[in-house]
Design goal:
25% of the residues lie in helices and 26% in strands. Strands 5, 6, 7, 8, 9, 10, 11, 14 and 17 form a nine-stranded antiparallel sheet that branches. β19 and β20 form a beta hairpin. α4 crosses α8 and α6 packs across α7. The protein contains 13 helices and 26 strands. It starts with a helix and ends in an 8-residue tail after the last helix. It has 481 residues and is α+β, with helices and mostly antiparallel strands.
Amino acid sequence: MYSDLREFLSELEKAGELVRVKEEITEGHEVFSIIWELGRRKGPAVILENVKGYKVPIVTNIFGTLDRFAMSCGFPRGLSVKEYRDLFMAQLDQSKWQKPRLVKTGPCKEVILKGDDIDLGKFPILQWSPADGGAYITLPLVIAKDDKFGPNAGIYRMMVHDKKSTGVMCNIFQDQGIYYDRAKKKGGKSMPCAAAIGTDPSLYMAAGTKIPLNTDEFAFASALRNGAPVDVVKCETCDLEVPATAEIVLEGEIVFGNNKMEGPFGEWMGMFEEGMLLPVFDVKCITHRKNPLFLTTIEGPTLGDAEMLRMIQQCSTFTVQAKERITGCTGAWLPPSGRDFTAIIAIKKRYPGWGKEAIYQAFSLPYIASTCNIVIVTDDDIDISDPEEVIWALSTRVDPHQDVIITPPIGGYALNPAGSIRPVEFPQRGQTDITFRSLMGIDATLKWQGEGRTRPTAVPIKPNEEVLKRVIANWKKYGLP
């Protein structure tokens, strides 16, 4: 596997999946449009070598196709989303993980900047979309540590406020928000924090995965690196470990009670979110490689670069949770076009009413309770990864009056665009944390007599299974292609 971003880029170049652009790039909006069009065309990764006003090149679209996702995880190319979901689920087995390896130094320490030398403006951190509220770091690995849960690494947007500070997402539903609250309750004034930009791609895959709080994303990344542990180094100014081969590392602290408005920002659901009141990250030190690369992306395009950092990972961990906690669950799916707000669950139904029981059990899953808007439950004869089959089940097995459950409005993730009120700040945290929306559950299972109706759902048309197996076995004998 790859020890750093540069090895990955080298492999992409050998595979014909990297283009170096020498034409001058004049503004962030141009970068945004390039990434947008690369996503639409399923284009290559790109190094923008000539960004006006900067000596640091921009790297982008490195995850922009399923094949590049596969390369990031050490998987074979050319498989389907469902097949990658299953491969990724297998890597969640913690017996395959190796703890990070602490080393004395690494390439990320080649240049060390402190005091007046700290200046975020030396890097091409730009306003990407004309509607963004400012310049954003979009692919930082934000790293914190908790005395109970250990280290945590996640991908959280960071809007630049000035040359020494940014915003950082510490939402109450996110791991960093939990760490923030726990640190604040201990009576301290701040929480140490670091952000690594431009790392080995497996670290991004791990950081984009919802693993339990008491597990380490860097340890998980080793499973995506054929068992090789991740090398980490101590920060210069705080008690945190960061990837030794990162291109750029920002070290600092989040001071409690120091919140600023940031945004709007074009988020993963393909829509702009309102401004949010978020904590400020004060940068105390910057370390970077000589001639660093700045990695960035944009949100918005379906199955684009940024979506590859969450789509399969979210579906994998959600499937594990659903099978553990929903009785009779045989499969779970988060359709890419649903942007994680729609969940589909298949069950093996054994008695009347089971479909609605599964809906209520699904509502209790943390991910659904905090994020989803729609839960669809089908029988296990439906391929829930096939939108055509799901729509057929919705169209032929659902009586809306009988089979749709709608909850009252409940609190959920602030970035949910379906929320009916503006995300609110509450006094206990002083940050923008919660919106309110209802949940809809749809029972798209075949209905049996007794489920509030006088007749069962019609029987689906399908061939005799034994005869079908014989036909498939004899396919070549028939002379059929």
